[in-house]
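Field reference: sequence -> structure
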Amino acid sequence: MEYNFPTWAYFAVFITASAASAGTSCFWIKRAKSWGLVDNPGHRKIHSKPIPLAGGLIVATGLLLPLFAAIILVEMSILGPTLTELSTYGLSERTLQLGGLIVGAIGMLGLGLYDDRTPMSAGKKLAFQFLIAVIVAGTGTRITLFVPNILFSYGVTILWFLMLVNAFNFTDNMNGLCTGLGAISAFILSVHSAIPEHYLVASLGFLVAGSLFGFLPSNYPKANTFLGDSGSHLVGYLIAALAILPHFHHGAQPNKFGVISPLLILGVVFIDLCWVVSFRLWHGKPIYIGDTNHLSHQLVKRGFSVSQAVLILWCLHVAIAASSFFLI
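Structure field:
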């Protein structure tokens, strides 16, 4: 089968996801308020009034609504012969994997929503994250690193999901930071997938990027709503999955170092994670207890405003992530 996926479809996916998340933001913000799903002012918090925690619901809507609509359109065969044929083939080949990813996304969203309403212990939360990662790995989304061992594959994949979910949760400390870093990562990962015509993975990536970009105006520079644990868990989960799905060693003479591309694409997220964990361990503090020593906080301490600090980290993230294309 010769692949010739139309480029316009990627733009359509991105714009539709953005519109879905932006268009439903007011609805979910009102629902969050009525459910008492809000973040109240307190220790280490810079807001002075309760803020709705609707981010996870908004991002999930931007992702799932267009996805299910696209599946229906494919089944109805009204997207044109080429797009319908390619989409039908891709969906049939990846049905179990896609189903596992959707179940995992809903699971992470639900876990985060529960934690937003009734804070869970770090151990219990990690246990549920572990279970979701096992389910997703069991449906085919796994890391191999060229090691033909199923136990190794499961172990590395589970650790990857746990690390990324919590790393993105760490970055959710200022308006728009986690959202922007996730959107940039998803977009770069999508382009990496589109280049070798991994069209289904690229389309999923543009869905994620679009849903996050559509949410961003509600979260930066002034936040009408926060991601909450539901949103940060979902963002970390989605980026973790997107980083596994593409092949980063394509081309006539593939660069064997291409497999480290995800580390570059997640540059600022990993730098912040390593810095914070090292700082807390050095000072004898539990790594799961929040503080104000993240990269964003360091910039604010040096005189930058919150919005400026977030913008600086976005730009740095783009620069590091873009360098991954030199490894193709």
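Note: The chain has a mean pLDDT of 90.
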